[in-house]
Amino acid sequence: MTCRSYGVRIPLLCCLLLWLSGHGIAWACESDDACIAPNSWKLGIAVGIGARTNPLVDGDPIPLVVLPDVAWYGENAYFDNGEVGYQWLLRSDVTTELFVRANRERSYFAFWHPANIVLSVNTSAADVIGSPLQPGDSDGESPAPRDSISINDISSRKWTADAGFRVNWNGSDSLLSAAVAGDPLGVHQGYYAQLKYQYRWQWDDWRFAANASVTYKSEKLIDYYYGIDGEDTANSSLWYAADHALQTSVGLLLNKSLSKHWRWVGRVQLSTLGSGMTDSPLVSKDYVASGFIGFGYQF
């Protein structure tokens, strides 16, 4: 199979980066199963156990159980795990591309959870119908403003897209990328810029990929999702006008081939969020951690 060095991907590792990083191009081509031939699909799935923490007040951890890996690369256009792009300046040492993908900030605010579908087995009738009024409770009067706020109290944050430009500098076993992206739908009207370095190596049958990144997110982006105003609460003491944020992230991915199609895969990632975000009363943690361990199958 003929592979293009700028279209190379690490099998089944990219699916583990769905939440926190972009598509996995630009690795040196070492084996057929590490590449995508032009005008062909690459399909895989990873099944295991994992989760990503939610930094928001009353935010539930996000389960990572089944992670799909779907990619297609043409001569210039590509689709890679939800990202659509167009590449040019296709050289072995550098590539450039335009890309569009869903913005990931809202993933903290909306995700499936069993508690949203069925009642807990520990739920009592009083929890469902409402507890009788106790002495001192008001009846028919507006409650006093709360001194805290959570994702259950605020107005809806909308989905939007990222559209941007990325440059990849490719080494034999490393990748340095720089990207900047804005909001083409005008939801938050902000932008972000990211510098990311990835390095991979092999030890016996194990393959490793380490990554580190720094991401700047603009004031408008952070304020739309994590700022608080009168639409969220009447308690003005909780209102918060967010500032820009500088976020860092480090991670490690690993896999071991078990057969032609099966691999053992694992991943850990830790990201810091920056004071512009963490100073918000809506945010209870200054980091996001995620981990996954399981088996991957490449079709």
Automatic annotation (TrEMBL):
Under the cellular component aspect of Gene Ontology, which terms does the record hold?
A: cell outer membrane
Please provide the Gene Ontology terms (biological process) for this protein. Answer: peptidoglycan biosynthetic process
Sorted keywords for this record are: Cell outer membrane, Membrane, Signal
What start and end residues bound the annotated signal peptide? Answer: 1-28
UniProt KW Signal keyword:
yes
**Where in the cell is the protein located?**
Cell outer membrane
Q: What stretches pass through the bilayer? A: none
Q: Annotated region Disordered: where? A: 130-150
Primary localisation category: membrane
One Pfam entry for this protein is MipA
Similarity comment: Belongs to the MipA/OmpV family.
Query: What name does UniProt use for this protein?
Result: MipA/OmpV family protein
Instruction: List the source organism.
Output: Alteromonas alba
